[in-house]
Design goal:
There is one protein chain. The protein folds into two domains: 2-158, Rossmann fold; 188-308, Beta Barrel (Elongation Factor Tu (Ef-tu), domain 3). It contains nine helices and 14 strands. It has helices at residues 29-45, 58-62, 74-83, 103-114, 136-146, 165-174, 177-184, 201-205, 289-308, and strands at residues 2-4, 17-21, 49-55, 88-93, 117-123, 149-153, 157-158, 161-162, 188-193, 210-213, 224-232, 235-244, 255-260, 271-281. The strands form three sheets. A six-stranded parallel beta sheet has the order 1-4-3-2-5-6, with helices on both faces. Strands 9-14-11-12-13-10 form a six-stranded antiparallel beta sheet. It has a two-stranded antiparallel sheet with strand order 7-8. Strand 7 and strand 8 (161-162) form a beta hairpin.
């Protein structure tokens, strides 16, 4: 998949572009339905499969005091779009000036002239341009004038509920990972670089842990203990993670500590990815290390039982997107 962070990087319009647009936060089942439609159309027409997205999330620019907590990092979003079979990902910087673009200019100048849209695939509630003036009716009218088709994908339903990023965020905050997986089509994942902690896990409690920082901008699951899959390199391990404040030792900083089963490698400074499979219990304060260790043993036993029936999930090695020197943080592939 080729990635573009500026329209000037696109030398000529894409060939018979089947194109979809969205923020694609989480790349949930609703987003996947859009990508599937793009792939289906492109197979029939022989055209390029194109996705257009934005970075940062528009609400971070338009509502900086109350931006949404994002379900996926930019890196993860790119990996998932790539796995969906898209040929070209256009990730445009979203700024206050860009937000002033009218629906007409967006369609004519960007979708039609720059990207060469032939088949536009959008969700049932999509609208573009300043003030969301470019609704479905507007897009169909522009399609008739310029010569492109508009395909509207209806909402994806799970257990009678519409799949949406908003619904998924709420489920993550509740710690309801089983329902989250139904809407995402995969486990909710957190990722980060293993940091040096206070080294209490192994020497004091008897269960070594990999420590991950949780940033204020992260969508943090409800504090507690979860059964997890830990991805390091090409291998998927079982484990348990405690997300919270570690009250037994009086900590007051939110963090995550992962105990990885049957794992003895030194991974300080390494990135790991953690799939949250199921929430086991609330975080609680114990009388000391011995009581905590006894509870962790019970947590591990329960987690192993949960993970026995869990499907292993990972993005194939080599699909991660590296860091880049551009406004979006994306590196175009050669």
């Amino acid at each position: 998949m080729k990635i573009y962070s500026d329209l000037r990087e696109i030398e000529r319009p894409f060939y018979k572009a089947a194109l979809t647009i969205g923020n694609f936060d989480g790349v949930h089942l609703g987003h996947q339905a859009l990508f599937s439609k793009v792939v289906e159309i492109a197979k029939e027409t022989g055209g390029d499969r194109v996705a257009l997205t934005f970075h940062p999330h528009p609400m971070k620019v338009l509502r900086p005091d109350n931006p949404p907590k994002l379900i996926s990092t930019l890196e993860q979003k790119v990996e998932l779009i790539m796995a969906a079979g898209i040929d070209h990902l256009v990730c445009l910087p979203f700024t206050r000036d860009f937000a002033k673009t009218t629906a007409t200019d967006f369609v004519k100048n960007i979708l039609w002239e720059s990207l060469g849209v032939r088949d536009l695939v959008v969700g049932y509630d999509y609208a573009c341009g300043k003030g969301r003036q470019g609704d479905i009716s507007f897009l169909k009218k522009m399609g008739t004038e310029l010569g492109f088709n508009v395909h509207v994908v209806q909402p994806v339903m799970v257990d009678g509920k519409i799949v949406s990023s908003t619904a998924i965020r709420e489920l993550v905050k509740q710690g309801n990972m089983r329902e989250v997986r139904k809407m995402l089509g995969r486990y909710y994942q957190i990722r980060g670089v293993v940091q040096k902690g206070k080294k209490r896990g192994g020497p004091v409690v008897g269960f070594p842990t990999a420590n991950l920082a949780i940033n204020r901008e992260d969508l943090c699951p409800k504090p507690g203990v979860y059964a997890v899959q830990v991805l390091h390199g090409d291998t998927c391990y079982g484990g348990v993670i405690n997300i919270g404040y570690n009250p037994t030792f009086g900590d007051n900083k939110l963090g995550a500590e992962v105990h990885i089963f049957d794992f003895k490698k030194d991974i300080y400074g390494h990135e790991i990815k953690v799939n949250l499979v199921a929430r086991i219990r609330e975080e609680k304060k114990f009388s000391g290390p011995d009581e905590l260790a006894a509870q962790i043993s019970k947590d591990i036993e329960k987690a192993r039982h949960i993970l026995e029936g869990a499907e292993k999930e990972c993005i194939p090695h080599g699909q991660a997107v590296g860091n880049l020197a551009c406004k979006t943080g994306l590196t175009p592939e050669k």
